[in-house]
Amino acid sequence: MSERSDLLIEIGTEELPPKALTTLRDAFVDGVRRGLEEAGLAPAGARGLAAPRRLAVLLQGVPLRQADRPVERRGPAVQAAFDDGGQPTRAAEGFARSCGVAVADLERMETDKGAWLVYRHVEPGRAAQDLIPDVVAGALAGLPIPKRMRWGDGDAEFVRPVHWVLLLLGDRVIPATILGVRAGGETRGHRFHHPEPLPLAAPADYLPVLEQRGHVLADFEARREVIRTQVERAAAEAGGRAVVEPELLDEVTALVEWPVAVLGHFDARFLEVPQEALISTMQDNQKYFPVVDDAGRLMPHFITISNVDSREPERVREGNERVIRPRFADAEFFWNQDRRRHLESHLEGLRQVVFQQKLGTLYDKTQRVTALAEHLAGALGAPVDPVRRAARLSKCDLQTLMVYEFTELQGVMGRYYALHDGEPEAVARALEEQYLPRHAGDALPSDTVGQVLALADRLDTLTGIFAIGLKPSGTKDPFGLRRAALGVLRILVEAGLPLDLEDLLQRAAAQHDPAVSAPAAVPQVLEYMLERLRAYYQDRGIRPEVFEAVRAVHPTRPLDFDRRVRAVEHFRTLPQAEALAAAHKRIHNILRKVEGELPAVVDPALLTEPAEQALHARLEALRGEVTARLDGGDYSGGLTALAALREPVDAFFDQVMVMAEDPALRDNRIALLNQLAALFLRVADLSRLP
Questions:
Q1: Using one digit for the tens of pLDDT, what is the confidence trace for 32-49?
Q2: Of 308, 455, 297, which Cα lies nearest the Cα of 376?
Q3: Which of 195, 249, 423, 631 has the CB geometry, 3.0–4.6 Å to 427, for a possible disulfide?
Q4: What does the alpha-carbon distance between residue 530 and residue 497 come to, in Å, rounded to a whole number?
Q5: CA separation for the pair 683, 679 (Å, rounded)
């Protein structure tokens, strides 16, 4: 086995983009590992490391040289390599010369197509240190960097200016120039605590030397857990618990090398402002962690993560408190100013806000959503008045100062202002919940009023945007149609709303201006949403063929579609399922070949074979029970009952010739199979199951 050593690669830079740090780290370690494997230097292990001013890869057990490689070059055929006197021809001499040997040193290789001259030798492997610089350069070039920058007088390009490069294989520095910087065997510590170079004797020294001498925690995950622990401890000291959102925790981890939690405080008077606004500015603008009590109410404290271990932590705390005070004062001002007007007073102002040039203003959208919401309320037996009121007010908070400043609070502030105006609780709650679910796995609107408003708003957007030809393409989805489509489907399925999706789309399309021709886009929108439904089930572990089996029978109520999917999933677990699915596939193939209209009526007098008589009798005995179950939406019970047909179906195909020469017998048997298939098809096309 070849000799191996650990390898350390570090690229030291200006502060890297925090939201891209882990992506860059993962791509870098993957690129280096892949490059080494392709060079025949596969490492025993690889670990990506990242901090604001560095990307690093620590690899274990890298071979110090490639394995020797046997090489075989085929030359001319022996017949062409020698003349009649046995002397080498020009072809043989030229081939030998290209191999750097004499003709006499060449070997012969026998094949089924004749004999050939061949040159065989062993090519010694190259040293790893000669190959690694190109591997690193290739990995850096392949990083997902949308826009690279140059610095100084050089031609090198990277996401940020590069200040140092470390390439250490075992105890030896690999001589190379990477991104215009000469590689060395030194790293650098914290910008303020230890800016001087830190020489390393071996790659394994990297993490401990940086932590103990350099004040840098280079392992992203370890640094994140240190931050989490410090934040939770600081919140507990304040008598509360920290709100630690994963995205914020990752971003803060990417901003600091040596985290130190600092507990800050603010004036309790600001707690009169809706806490969502205060939390938003803490998290989004300042990257602070809010502190709440056991009931989830905001406390007058926050936690910031400093990147220095200050000798005067009080100065750090006071500085952050000074920064947060004017931001909270702004939120307080917006809150007080907005409450001087009723929410409904903003409705007319929506006439001046364009939703989409061809689809009109937000006022126009509000009118369409209101009409559609009223219809939905009637279809569901929900109270129409609160639905109508919620739809009318649904976009009014977009005109408030608070939402103008904190756009992510749309709906949330609508609820606060509606309650302040004395609107019913259901109306106020719907104004916030119309935006649910915001993302995968998010909660749904909690009651019918919110569900109806959420559906109407999304259906209006989907039909309108598709009608004007702006459907999503590739990764571009500026109107969030994928999220809107999935939101509609989740509400209909998970809230148990028995509404017909095609009908809903038609009614939504009918609300648009006739010049838009929205009804013509409905089939396209329906197809798009069914594809989102496919993804919905795929995420839940439903096999594609189960989805296809249900889709083949074209149910248009998502709740009904879901019940069929669950029934087919259950059916697949039955011992009879495989044989019945195979039989259904056989029936499908037989019926597909029948020309003209399929026979539908079975004449018992023409059932001459015992097996077909038994199948008919069993089918008739089950028909009432199965039909009753299917009519009641109990698809699982219906399929389970039909599973009892396995034995008579197997016997039928074993003993009965369906395509008999007698046309009457043949049609009667086809009619029997047609009736059987029709019962299964009331749930799904089981012929699509494997």
A1: 999 999 999 999 999 999
A2: 455
A3: 423
A4: 17
A5: 8
